[in-house]
Amino acid sequence: MKDIIILGIETSCDETSAAVVANGREVLSNIIASQVNLHAEYGGVVPEIASRKHVELILPVIDSALKEAGIVLKDVDAVAVTYGPGLVGALLVGVTAAKAIAAALDKPLIKVHHIEGHIAANYISHPDLEPPYISLVASGGHSHIIHVKDYLDFEVLGMTRDDAAGEVFDKIARVLGLGYPGGPVIDKQAKLGNPKAIHFPRVNFTDGSHDFSFSGLKTAVINYVNTARQKGEELNIPDICASFQQAVVDVLVGHTLKAAANLNVKKIVLAGGVASNSLLRETLQRRAKETGMDALFPAPILCTDNAAMIAAAGYYSFLKGEFADLTLNAVPYLAIGEGHK
Ligand code: KG4
Ligand code: ZN
């Protein structure tokens, strides 16, 4: 059978990425131009800078992806693009490029939900993975527990009621003067500290929901830091990072295992930028094993925003003939699964 070659495009936040993926699982190229250094001095992503940089980078990045894959545009069977959620100006750059290519080549256009893309990163890292499974998606903008019933059938079981997990990592790092993005540096510092040194709160709702809340934890850490500074006490950065990270991981893992147990699903799949966190990976794997479940996660390069995951997700829409037309627009707020209704 002929290979299905999908060109993926991702520009929802501060990564400009294009990738070529064969049959949904084999990455022929995955070019990621990160703007992280441009945004670092502001302590977070500046939407206007992101949009302008995407405009500059999108065509060279697509060219590189085709070149590295050893193909030309006419070899592509379809173009898959992130159309939401994300920063509207950033999304528009990718959507416009994808529409132009699809129209010029007369090839199908596939719209992909960013979070469904993060989940699909696991199909690349685990070629045998098939639904159903439970996915924990934790990124800078999202913290969701999702029942993936089939490739295009998603049910959200829980989500954050306030801040996303990655957002809190970034905020705490900023307060501690550790730079942006916060996740990787806190992960590193935490390895040198004692996770039991400071008790930070863990929120579990009593209404039976699997929702998260991280804003209380964020405030508790900030208050701890401010109080210590006011008293002139020296901060033990590794202990603060380790204790904070432990609190986030306890909640993420606890809620996910509970959701899986409730539905009697034995497979848990991690996704999103925070899925790179070493404690989260170790803890989820260990605790899943204790309860007879399997925990999987993508290779670190596929946890951050990238276009290979978008092409991987788009493959299942391709198989179903679920195509978008040239009226496709960027949708900054978009529910998971909505695009398949
Ligand atoms: O998925 P992603 O690349 O972009 C969004 O869609 O948001 O996620 C970025 C987030 C940032 O908040 C970053 O601090 C966090 O993922 N992150 C981590 C780690 N690496 C990245 N958080 C915790 N531990 C890490 N090792
Ligand atoms: Zn993302």
In short:
The protein is of the alpha/beta class. The protein has eleven helices and ten strands.
Any overview of this molecule?
The chain has 341 residues and is an alpha/beta fold. It folds into two domains: 5-120 and 303-340, ATPase, nucleotide binding domain (Nucleotidyltransferase, domain 5, 2-Layer Sandwich); 131-298, ATPase, nucleotide binding domain (Nucleotidyltransferase, domain 5), CATH 3.30.420.40. 45% of the residues lie in helices and 19% in strands. It has helices spanning 36-40, 47-69, 88-105, 114-125, 165-175, 182-190, 215-230, 237-263, 278-290, 300-303, 307-320; strands spanning 5-10, 15-22, 26-34, 78-84, 109-113, 133-138, 143-150, 153-159, 267-271, 294-296. The strands form two sheets. Strands 3-2-1-4-5 form a five-stranded mixed β-sheet, sandwiched between helices. Helix 3 links the parallel strand 4 and strand 5 (109-113). Helix 5 packs parallel to helix 7 (215-230). The mean pLDDT is 96. Bound molecules: 5'-O-[(R)-(carboxyoxy)(hydroxy)phosphoryl]adenosine and zinc ion.
